[in-house]
Design goal:
This protein is α/β, with parallel strands linked by helices and about 425 residues long. It folds into three domains: about 200 residues, 3-Layer(bba) Sandwich (FAD/NAD(P)-binding domain); about 130 residues, FAD/NAD(P)-binding domain (3-Layer(bba) Sandwich), CATH 3.50.50.60; about 90 residues, Immunoglobulin-like (Sandwich), CATH 2.60.40. Strands 1, 2, 3, 4, 5, 6 and 17 form a seven-stranded mixed sheet that branches. It has a five-stranded parallel sheet with strand order 8-15-9-10-11. Helix 1 runs parallel beside helix 2, helix 1 crosses helix 7 and helix 4 runs parallel beside helix 5. It is globular, with a radius of gyration of 22 Å.
Length: about 425
């Protein structure tokens, strides 16, 4: 088997992979290859035909395909090679990528740096342990979105949505606009996991009820869904007897969380964070494996694609520096650990270089709803930064930019802690 060599190999041609590749090429990397398993670049944005994308990055409102096309066009302008229809089978710790495709067959590619940008997948019904038969009419919200927006297929006419993630909220509106009757959106937590703007625009504007602290406890139907039973849950998320409601429907959409696609990362020996289900990375987005970087939803699930692109630009520039320097910069022992404190879940990055020359953005999700609170970033007794807000919710990521002067002189043995405190 012939071994091809490139300076940087990007796995995934969604918004993260495209942004990382663009940044690396603009940083002077000529030997650059992007692999994509779908037949077209653009990733999940191709089926997100609603607007609301690009407000932060482009200062205008775009649909998903419009947003993706801007990066696709820029990649073509820069002459970046994107090979579609290629499935990556493995990534080795020494950055040898094995892949297969109808056009190129089975091959191996050795890379100076690998950027993981595989995105995420939806949590399936099997993870929910919901009683009922294996009848037709049960779809993940993303699958239903693909059917309606790309393939012109309507999954059903009477719909219940389990989970209030952004895809589920958006599909509540989409199914309504296509003529279906969305009976309810059911969320097991006492708060929605989606953006507030989607709750307003996709549920409230169409009089679709949102049942918080409720879940589906039974799916009825043999050949196809005929009804679902919805029950209220207590503070330990256990169904409360006597609270059952029956919704006669032919379709159940699941919007119960996203999981980073990290099978390739684990195969490469990358350390995975139990909080994010993504890689543990430094402030340069380098993983525990030297020369392997991660960005976008494979690192941690974002709520805005604008943030995915910004993060991936940084990862692309960092990978370019790694290839040019080839010096194996300081390893883990020199990094300052970043820990989740009270009310904080899944801070990224998990470690920071001492005395960075550029600002470091910390991103995390609040563990619950907090009103009139503040985020405090501390290193021992020293507070590095504080950010107040009227409300923090799990549905919206919090981003904090730490300036280099705030991080100057920190001891690598003393961890940084991010926590939510009373304002």
């Amino acid at each position: 088997m012939n071994m091809q060599s490139v300076d940087i190999l990007v796995i995934g041609a969604g918004p993260a992979g495209l942004a990382a590749a663009i940044a690396a090429r603009e940083d002077g990397i000529e030997s650059l290859l992007v692999l994509e398993r779908e037949n077209n670049p653009g990733g999940i944005l191709r089926q997100c035909i609603h607007n609301g994308f690009g407000l932060h990055r482009f200062k205008e409102e775009l649909t998903g395909p419009e947003y993706a096309q801007r990066d696709i066009d820029r990649a073509r302008e820069l002459g970046i090679e994107i090979q579609c229809g290629v499935t990556v089978l493995s990534v080795s710790p020494d950055r040898v990528v094995t892949c297969v495709s109808p056009e190129y067959g089975l091959r191996q590619i050795r890379a100076g740096a690998v950027i993981l940008a595989m995105g995420c997948r939806e949590r399936p019904r099997g993870a929910l342990c919901t009683p009922g038969t294996r009848c037709a009419g049960i779809y993940s919200a993303g699958t239903a979105q693909r059917f309606v927006n790309l393939e012109g297929f309507m999954p059903g006419q009477r719909v219940v949505i389990l989970g209030s993630g952004d895809i589920g909220l958006i599909m509540a509106r989409r199914m309504t606009l296509q003529g279906a009757k969305v009976l309810a959106c059911v969320e097991i937590m006492p708060f929605s996991s989606g953006l507030n703007r989607n709750i307003v625009q996709c549920l409230q504007d169409y009089d679709i009820p949102l049942f918080l602290s409720h879940t589906v406890t039974e799916i009825r139907g043999r050949e196809r869904v005929e009804a679902v039973v919805v029950s209220e849950v207590d503070e330990r998320r256990r169904p409360i007897p006597g609270t059952e409601q029956v919704f006669e429907c032919d379709t159940l959409l699941l919007s119960v969380g996203l999981i980073p696609e990290n099978e390739l990362s684990e195969g490469a020996g990358v350390q995975i964070s139990p909080a994010t289900s993504g890689a543990v990375v430094s402030d340069t987005f380098e993983t525990s494996v030297p020369g392997v970087f991660a960005c976008g939803n494979v690192l941690h699930v974002h709520d805005l694609v604008d943030h995915v692109s910004n993060e991936s630009f940084l990862a692309g520039h960092a990978a370019a520096r790694f290839v040019r320097d080839a010096s194996g910069a300081a390893r883990d022992a020199a990094f300052i650990p970043v820990l989740d404190g009270e009310g904080v879940r899944g801070t990224v990055p998990q470690k920071i270089r001492p005395n960075p020359s550029e600002p470091v953005t910390l991103m995390f999700r609040p563990a619950a709803v907090y009103r009139g609170a503040a985020v405090s970033v501390r290193c021992g007794e020293r507070e590095l930064m504080r950010k107040k807000a009227l409300i923090f919710t799990p549905g919206e990521m919090v981003a904090m930019d730490l300036k280099p002067e705030a991080l100057k002189g920190l001891d690598a043995a003393q961890p940084i802690t991010v926590e939510i405190v009373k304002a």
